[in-house]
Amino acid sequence: MAQVKHISYYTNVMQSWSKADLGKAPTEAQLALAHVFGRPGKQSMAVAMALRDGGVSGKQIKLASALFDGKATPQLNHMRDLIAAKLFTREPVSGAYVITLAPKGQQFVDLHGAKAAEKVTGDKPVAKAKGKAKRSKATPAAAVETPTSEAPTVSEGQQAEMTA
After folding, report:
1. Whether the predicted pLDDT of 122 surpasses 90
2. Are the beta carbons of 29 and 18 closer than 8 angstroms?
3. What is the CATH number assigned to the segment(s) 6-121?
4. pLDDT per residue over 37-78, tens digit each?
5. In angstroms, how far apart are the furthest CA atoms of the chain?
6. What are the extents of the domains in the chain?
7. CA contacts within 13 A on the Cβ side of 50
C-alpha cells in the first residue's frame, strides 16, 4: 500500500503556521490518528493539536482555524463527541485540551485504521484467505467446459470422403 501523507492536506495551513502563536505543529502520526476518526479539516486539526504534548488552548484552536479560511471559529464539537464516546480521554489540565487515546479508541483504530488509509490512497489491502475458496456465482463449476487433449477420432471411411 502506498504511504499516506496526512500532513499534505494541510500544506497551506503549515506554510502559515506560527510556532510562537500556535505552538509546535502536529506530527504526521498525530494527524493520521485524527483522520481515523474523521476526515481532514478544521475538526481533525483540533484533535491532532490536542494530542500534542501540552495539548491545545481554545485560543490556539481559533487561530489554527483562521488559517483555513480566515474564520476564527472554535472547533470542539468533534473532539467532545470523541471524548463522550469514550474513544479518547481528556486529561485534567487547566486552560488546555489534552486528550489521549482510550482503550476503546485503540480498538476502533485497529478495526478502521486500514480502511481509512484505503480511502485516502485508493489502494485496497490484500485480504488473507480464510476457510474454503468461494466459487463465483456467475459461472458455476458444472457449466464450465474443460478442454480435452484428445482429438476427435475420424474413421477411415470418413477420411476417404473428406479427401475425395
Report:
1. no
2. no
3. 1.10.10
4. 998 899 999 999 999 999 999 999 999 999 999 999 999 999
5. 105
6. 6-121
7. 31
The reported pTM is 0.67
- Check if the beta carbon of residue 99 is closer than 8 Å to that of residue 89: yes
Q: What are phi and psi of 11, to 5 degrees?
A: -55, -50
Report the 10 Å Cβ neighbour count for 89. Answer: 16
pLDDT value of position 158: 55
Q: How far apart are CA 34 and CA 12, in angstroms?
A: 18
SS3 12: helix
DSSP string, 41-102: SHHHHHHHHHTSTT-B-HHHHHHHHHHHHS------HHHHHHHHTTSEEEE--TTSBEEEE-
Distance CA 16, CA 9 (A): 14
CA–CA separation, 112 vs 106, rounded Å? 10
Residue 131, C-alpha cell as written in the block: 476457510
Lookup: cell for 153: 477420432
Whether the Cβ atoms of residue 60 and residue 23 lie closer than 8 Å to each other: yes
More confident residue, 142 or 52: 52
Query: In the predicted model, is pLDDT for residue 1 greater than 90?
Result: no
- Residue 111 CA to residue 134 CA, distance in Å, equals 24
